[in-house]
Amino acid sequence: MPTTTLQNHIAGEYCDAHAAERLDLIDPATEEVYGSIPLSDDADIDAAYAAATAAFPAWRDATPAERQLALFRIADAMAERADEFADLESQDTGKPRASLVADEIEQSIDQLRFFAGAARSLEGRAAGEYLAGHTSYVRREPIGVIGQVTPWNYPLNMAVWKIAPALAAGNTVVLKPAESTPQSTLLLAEIVAEHTPAGTLNVVLGARETGAALIAHPAPQMVAITGSARAGMAVAESAASDLKRVHLELGGKAPAIVFDDAALDKAVDAIVAAAFFNAGQDCTAATRVIAHASVHDELVSALVARTQTHARTGGPHEEGVFYGPLSSAAQLAQVRGFIDRLPAHAKIETGGRRQGETGYFFEPTIVSGMRQDDEAVQNEVFGPVLTVQSFSDDDEALGLANGVRYALAASVFTRDHSRAMRFTRDLDFGCVWVNTHIPFVSDMPHGGFKHSGYGKDLSQYGFDDYTRVKHVMTAWA
Fold first, then answer.
1. Integer Cα distance of 408 and 402 in angstroms
2. CB 409 within 8 Å of CB 429
3. Domain 254-441 belongs in CATH node 1.20.120.450
4. Within its chain, how far is the Cα of 283 from the centroid?
5. How far is residue 426's CA from residue 420's CA, in Å, rounded to a whole number?
6. For 4-250+452-472, which CATH superfamily applies?
7. pLDDT (tens digit, 9 = 90+) per residue, 425-449?
8. Cα–Cα dist 29/316, whole Å
């Protein structure tokens, strides 16, 4: 297989890293090496931040209409090159190639277009005389240079979630993609460079040490990361030493609560799709079914049947595949470890094994008989594993759902409107779905509480997070 030697993208062009050490890119479907990235060092990060700092005045001073037009043009260019993005994303992640354009590329295009519109909605409270003889008003301004780190589960989507609001608000960016999935982000940087001042978006490649150095650098006024709770804590600790703003979108352990009055067939379809899409490598994935005792057995049987017929895993170019491999050997080992450590009271209803001997494929897995303090209930597996618990009344269901440290997303399946309203209020999660699980729209915010982080992606709220508020007061005489 031919290999690709990737470079950093700084100040609008590709450039060699100062660091000589490189890291192999491994195809998760075949375990073959197909490229390498530099393990960028402090000198590379200095260069990227210098470029972003130099580009900031021109991009900040561009009118909202000019920034909007640039983002629209970036979105149009992405649409024109959608197949190229899909090919790169499929190679990096092993995701089914046939569905990538509709599932992820088109979403990214829509998100860019949403934030293009948001660029023209910088708003403050109405001007007024809050002190006699003085007029006050509020300005919303870009923060400045932003440092960002994105994960490997949705490389292009997460890059767009990060850069689109930042650029729309007038900031410049230095971004490090996950070391195993850099290609679509580099292509995005190429396109951004065609429509913005050189250095508006800079992409630096590397592993964990590169990301830590990017966060610790004194240049950015804000740092943002999508990643694990552990990574988020490290970012927050590092940023605190320099009083940087922090935007954290972290892990999840989403419950799907199924009541005895739910439309079980619809619940099953929604839960299986939300549990196994992207091999369960999704912080909003339906990972914990909490079923009313009266429908528990029927629901488990239906989930198993649906999983066995609709949640097939396989290579990116195989037909009829719902999800691809896990992202890496390390991720495969993590998922297998959770299964190996299941307690005696747990029962594997289906799956539970690696599929094949080549590639990081893992069978869709359902485990019943789980208890609230079990490791696989409390901790993020981040793989195609769905656990099932039962409950007897509303209060117990709510306690089980909220009884984890994560608070990103949850769902409720019921025909009872009053119950749905109560649970949407009392579930301690940043997003609650009713009779569905996992749909996203650009217009609505995404972000959680507790160990799922803080700050919002998408929506006007996500845009506002990349602005600062300035009070201006003028004396009349």
1. 11
2. yes
3. no
4. 7
5. 10
6. Aldehyde Dehydrogenase; Chain A, domain 1 (3.40.605.10)
7. 999 999 999 999 999 999 999 999 9
8. 7
Tokens of 416: 């009872």
Structure tokens at 165: 């609001």
CA atoms within 13 A on the CB side of 310: 16
81, 82, 86, 87 alpha-carbon torsion, rounded to 10°: -30
CB atoms within 10 A of CB 321: 18
Query: In the chain, which residues fall in CATH 3.40.309.10?
Result: 254-441
Which residues fall within 8 angstroms of residue 154, CB to CB, at 6 or more apart?
104, 278, 282
Half-sphere exposure of 275 (CA within 13 A, CB side): 28
Contact 253, 228 (CB under 8 A): no
Cite the residue boundaries of each domain of the chain with CATH code 3.40.605.10. 4-250+452-472
Residue 56's contacts (CB-CB under 8 Å, 6 or more residues apart) are 142, 144, 145, 171, 172
Which helix (H) or strand (E) element contains residue 51?
Answer: helix 42-61
Q: Catalytic positions, please?
A: 249, 283
407 contact partners, CB below 8 Å, separation of at least 6? 428, 429, 430, 448, 449, 450, 451, 452
Question: What is the DSSP pairing of strand 145-149 with strand 134-142?
Answer: unpaired
Helix or strand holding residue 84 (H, E): helix 82-93
Q: Which tokens sit at 314?
A: 């396989």
410 DSSP β-pair partners? 432
Residue closest to 258 by CA, chosen among 390, 369, 376, 430: 390
Q: Decide: helix, strand or coil at residue 13.
A: strand
Question: What gap in Å lies between CA 127 and CA 422, rounded to an integer?
Answer: 39
Q: What is the pTM of this model?
A: 0.96
User: What is the end-to-end Cα distance of the chain in Å, rounded?
Assistant: 75
Summarised one tens digit per residue, pLDDT across range 28-58 is 999 999 999 999 999 999 999 999 999 999 9
